Amino acid sequence: MIDDEDRKEREELRRAAQKAASLSTVALFAAAAALALSILGLFMPLR
After folding, report:
1. Residue 18: per-residue pLDDT
2. 3-class secondary structure for 1-47?
3. Could you give the CA distance from residue 28 to residue 12 in angstroms, rounded to a whole number?
4. Whole-angstrom Cα distance, residue 6 to residue 34?
5. Nearest-angstrom CA–CA distance, 38 and 2
6. What is the rounded distance in angstroms from the CA atom of residue 15 to the CA atom of residue 8?
7. CA–CA separation, 19 vs 34, rounded Å?
8. Contacts for 44 with CB less than 8 Å, ≥ 6 apart
9. pLDDT tens-place string over residues 4-46
10. Where are the transmembrane segments (predicted)?
């Protein structure tokens, strides 16, 4: 019984960790895109 509870808890923790990892990956890509756009904006000013 206790092993089953432990397994469920670990499964929930792993799922939460995966969700956080995917969110941080999306945030990282968004930051990289914003940085690239700002660099392009510096080199090619809009008229």
Report:
1. 96
2. CHHHHHHHHHHHHHHHHHHHHHHHHHHHHHHHHHHHHHHHHHHCCCC
3. 24
4. 42
5. 54
6. 11
7. 23
8. none
9. 999 999 999 999 999 999 999 999 999 999 999 999 988 887 6
10. 21-44
Dihedrals phi, psi of 44, to nearest 5 degrees = -125, 80
Q: How far is CA 47 from CA 24, 34, 39, in A?
A: 35, 20, 16
Count, residues in the chain: 47
Rounded Cα distance between 12 and 18, Å, is 10
What the block records as the tokens of 3 is 């092993």
Place of tokens 């969700």: 19
